[in-house]
Amino acid sequence: MRIIGDTSYPFLTYRRVALALSALVIIAGLAYEFLGPGLNLGIDFVGGTQVTLKFREQPELGELRSAFSDLEVGTPMIQSFDEAEKNEVLIRVENPAGEEGDFTRPILELLNEKYNADLANRFDINTQGSQGLRDLLVTADPDGMGGDDEAREAFYEPVAEAVLDFRKENGIFLTLDQLGEVEGMSTSTRDYLEGTLGLGAFSLLGAENVGPSVGADLQKKAMLAIAFSLVGMLIYIWIRFQLPYAVGAVAALFHDVLITLTALAVTHREINLPTVAAILTLVGYSVNDTVVVFDRVRENLRLHRGEDLEQLMNMSINQTLSRTIITSGTTLMVVLSLFIFGGDVINTFAFVLLVGILIGTYSSIFVASPVALAMNKVLVSRRERRRLRGRR
Amino acid sequence: MDKKILWRIVLIVAVVALCLWSLYPPGEKIHYGLDLSGGIHLVLQVETDDAIKAELDDASRRLVSRAQEEGVDLGETVTDVEGLGFTVQVPATADTATLREVAASWVPGYKASPGVGVWTFQLPPNMDKTVRDMAVRASLETIWNRVDQFGVAEPVIQRQGLESNRILVQLPGVDDPARVKDLISSTAFLEFQEVVGGPSPDRQSLLAGLGGSLPADSEILSGERTGLDGQVIGMDYWVLKKAAIISGQELRSARRSQDEYGQSVVNFSTQPHAADKFGQYTGSHIGTRMAIVLDNNVISAPVIESRIPGDGRITGNFSIEDAEDLALKLRAGALPATITYLEERTVGPSLGHDSVVRGVRAAVAGLMLVMIFMLIYYRLSGLNANVALVLNIIILMGVMAYFGATLTLPGIAGVILTIGMAVDANVLIFERIREELRVGKTVRAAIDTGFARAFGTILDANMTTLIAALFLFNFGTGPVKGFAVTLSIGILASMFTAVFVSRTMYMVAFAGRERVETLSI
Predict the structure, then answer these.
(1) Which of A289, A322, B59, B304 is deepest in the core (most CB within 10 A)?
(2) Which value does ipTM take for this structure?
(3) From A2, A204, A343, residue closest to B354, measured CB to CB
(4) Omega before B201 cis (within 30°)?
């Protein structure tokens, strides 16, 4: 089976249109990012606190918002997370300017006051951990084990862990009756726990708090990592090929990174550490296509000496076209499945790769080769001039 | 069969067997990162200014009390942490020669600058560095002790850089993040102090009882007042003697226990020299109150009923967890300085669990799609590529298990991406073989040139990805590093499987055949 047969599209003939189009998109994107709404930098880079919770019942977002009016920080961003029926909520707050500290604690205290006031001092099965539960059982000893603390600890530890494993799988205890579904628990322990435990309104899925100094650090590191990897590519391709090709490849990478950032800005997706990781991956991946084309150009230069470079490039792009399309296709398949099945946590990561692979495929044909061609012309004509000058 | 082919097969079987062996059983061998197992990642900053202040306070106190013994009465001292020194009021009548002598022997190295009525003492040069360094080291050790006693498997607790005052703490598998955070960051500085006055519901009435002003050797501290049911119903204010009877450092052991009413308490025993001090004090103060102060909070102020020799009990409105944690902190020691959170990343166990389930689902779906496509597009050669792909994943996981690398959520994405990229090498080779076949080469020749020509391309293409992965590794924190590692191993493994293994499979398929007319590709 073949999708793409022998082709001879004159890709490079359209290079001016293509470059102009790319430039237009990039300029519009930069304008959007710097003059318009801008990039949505996540807490990894601007600092802030983010808490993800799972509620037993769908919380009223307006009510939740009003609970935060007491907290002396900017307006919190509250939105539901993942699928609606999971009752998961993401709360993001700015930290007080310039201050470092544990800002997840006041948020959780506030939520406890609002939703768990009726628990009093009961042990909250939805937020507390297995060690606490074990200690509770060791002290109460509902199974009448007797013996010293250590013996009882050994006995009750698996019970406590089984209870927490249940929470781990289901995210939250909806009712205390669900203790009946926990394996390996005696009736007396279960009765005791049902009478003693408190059932909190929410469980903590995750909490992140990044202070200003770490945020600034990460920002710097992210920029450096992207810059260094581009320089690394430039040097490698320069060594393996020639300077014009290196410039062409890196121009294509800049192109890919800028357009992907624009896509992130337009879709209001948050830029966090994994997003930057995805962009770096994209840099590594997108250059593959370009290298494959250049490799073929190098080979053709040897085979067809004296032929026009533009012709050779066109020929090389056409010869590698089916490979380019197929590889992008297979990678797109897996990234798409990641985008669809991977869940909210990894979604933006997959989005970057999805956009990046499409853009990268385009740029390896319409940006890398044209730029390399133009660079080559500049270098060649300069060399000519120098030679002429030398003769005089 | 050809000896060369045999050797290749032996090598492949050995590599795969080694990987399977290091992978088995997968549940134990593959380490999940914090984002998958749940847990806490913290970056803490030791406020080393606290340690400097403690050092300066200590020096000024030493100076004042020793000078007094020598007959020189000094006035108020003021500590200046930023200026790394302290000032002390020196009356005009004071004997400056004696003061200099006292200073030389009791605050050695300090640079004294006499002024009008006020002397300034400067910390010896470079001493602030030493003090700060010691504070970070001591904090590191205390946090180690606490985490160790709490029982977290495979914790990471390290200083970020040699000179830095930042500490990185990573605790996988923790299911009660709030408690563990408290455990790590609370100073846990315990003191037993003499009660001078109180309790009283507010500051003013306390001061009024003392005749309007607070004596220089006393301080006012507060604590929660609780009702009979354990609910907090207000605050109590106390006047306490500043100088502690004994402090937490002088305890030998501490354990959670229960008193006769079923209330959680902490039993402690003191070190021998402190036992004398404590016994003497309690023996001579029967019937008075003694405050138990933790981090400047009065947790309780029981009446001394009898002489307490070396063993005592701390009561308070403790839950089981509170008592357990206090006992643990007393055993592990106090932190020498306060600790500030710079970064916290907590992943609840259920979120991590969910991520694994979804990641695996995405990986399987992606793998299936790619395999089906390869089979349809390249037929038997596609089967060859698929075998190589499966081996690639086995090798990737095996190498990760062997080196104890951690699998993170972006790492799972890395595995998925590797699936997509690994077939890239095969596609390059197959397309090349097709080209060679089209120009009329024989099957064998086409395969030979296909592999030979494609190899250079594959090498160049993969090298660039490795360069990106290298910078990714340098840049990233835990999860991103995990991704870089996974991606790099995956790429290297794909060079082996797509080039070496695929080639061998063709060799085996055509071994012993004189002429090969057709190739299913």
Answers:
(1) A289
(2) 0.85
(3) A343
(4) no
